[in-house]
């Protein structure tokens, strides 16, 4: 066979082939980056809001590859999509200034969706013992988890529990007395929530723990959103200083989540601490989505917020610490540096 028959395709032809493959791969991601801007109310469009970080990474890579191939228009299009995702992610990387916080009045809290199917609930117990929070909330709290956490009751004698065999049991444990403790449901008869007040060095702090249903259908999405509305009402019954520990089955970019923050005068405790995707735990960090949340009132300053280790659940737990802000900060909006 002549050697000419084995020659490689011309560089231009190879470039066109690579460009077509890049367009095929990146176009669905580009669409996914734009759809959230029209996702205010439709439940299917709302599901597209959760993937800001994977979309940003994919489109940034596509931008670079198109640029290397000399496809300037394609690179600009992908850069536009990456910039949209980056804009949504930016509040997570703009730190909230802690000026005015009283470091002597602090609270450490944990929220853990333990998974009703977790075969090793003792791993959560061991991690909580190491962290030694003041309060912690366990979601998907089943009879198995209740037994596994029994060794912690000496340190955390105060608790309000709703034990269920389905994924919507819930419990709030505290080393401090729980005042005004109550249980309710949010949005659905199965979605339990608990609320209480703790006193830390004379400061009364309201604690809420919630786990609304996932928006896997039109009806479930409506139930979740109704749960958010009811959560606003429950928070209004707590002291001005308050914290929500929850798997909200929504990310920061959901319209329903943003309404929840606006209507309750709460803010996302993840702001300033970067992207912290918590589910599903088996995926690499930047491919997970952040549906496990710590929300705080404006007068609380988050001094620590990070993900915990794999405890056998499909969710990673979250640990956070708060300091009480003085009047000079709590009377206004949080300042950014």
Description:
With 337 residues, this protein is an alpha+beta fold. The protein folds into two domains: 9-92, no CATH class; 97-330, Endonuclease/exonuclease/phosphatase (Deoxyribonuclease I, Chain A, 4-Layer Sandwich). The protein is built from nine helices and twelve strands. A hairpin with a 2-residue loop joins strand 6 and strand 7. Helix 1 packs antiparallel against helix 3, helix 3 runs antiparallel to helix 4 (72-89) and helix 7 (218-236) runs parallel beside helix 8. It is elongated, with a radius of gyration of 23 Å. The N and C termini lie far apart (70 Å). Residues 1-5 and 327-337 have low confidence and may be disordered.
How would you describe this structure in keywords?
disordered C terminus, 2 domains, 337 residues, six-stranded mixed β-sheet, Deoxyribonuclease I, Chain A, 9 helices, elongated, disordered N terminus
């Amino acid at each position: 066979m002549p050697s000419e028959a084995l020659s490689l395709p011309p560089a231009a032809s190879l470039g066109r082939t690579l460009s077509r493959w890049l367009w095929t791969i990146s176009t669905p991601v580009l669409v996914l980056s734009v759809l959230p801007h029209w996702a205010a109310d439709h439940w299917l469009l709302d599901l597209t809001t959760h993937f800001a970080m994977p979309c940003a990474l994919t489109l940034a890579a596509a931008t670079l590859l198109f640029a290397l191939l000399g496809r300037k228009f394609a690179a600009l299009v992908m850069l536009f999509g990456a910039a949209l995702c980056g804009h949504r992610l930016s509040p997570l990387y703009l730190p909230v200034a802690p000026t005015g916080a009283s470091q002597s009045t602090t609270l450490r809290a944990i929220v853990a969706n333990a998974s009703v199917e977790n075969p090793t609930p003792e791993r959560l117990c061991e991690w909580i013992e190491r962290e030694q929070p003041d309060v912690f909330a366990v979601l998907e709290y089943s009879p198995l988890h209740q037994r596994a956490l029994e060794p912690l009751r000496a340190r955390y004698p105060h608790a309000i529990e709703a034990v269920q065999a389905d994924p919507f049991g819930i419990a709030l444990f505290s080393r401090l007395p729980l005042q005004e403790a109550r249980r309710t449901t949010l949005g659905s008869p199965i979605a339990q929530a608990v609320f209480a007040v703790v006193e830390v060095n004379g400061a009364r702090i309201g604690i809420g723990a919630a786990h609304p249903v996932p928006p896997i259908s039109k009806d479930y999405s409506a139930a979740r959103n109704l749960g958010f509305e009811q959560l606003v009402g429950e928070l209004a019954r707590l002291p001005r200083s308050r914290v929500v520990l929850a798997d909200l089955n929504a990310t920061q970019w959901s319209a329903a989540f943003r309404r929840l923050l606006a209507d309750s005068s709460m803010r996302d405790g993840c702001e300033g601490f970067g992207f912290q995707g918590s589910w599903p735990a088996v995926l690499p960090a930047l491919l997970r989505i952040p549906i496990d949340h710590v929300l705080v009132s404006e007068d609380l300053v988050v001094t620590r917020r990070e993900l915990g280790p794999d405890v056998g659940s499909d969710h990673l737990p979250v640990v956070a610490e708060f300091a009480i802000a003085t009047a000079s900060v709590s009377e206004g909006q949080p300042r950014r540096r």
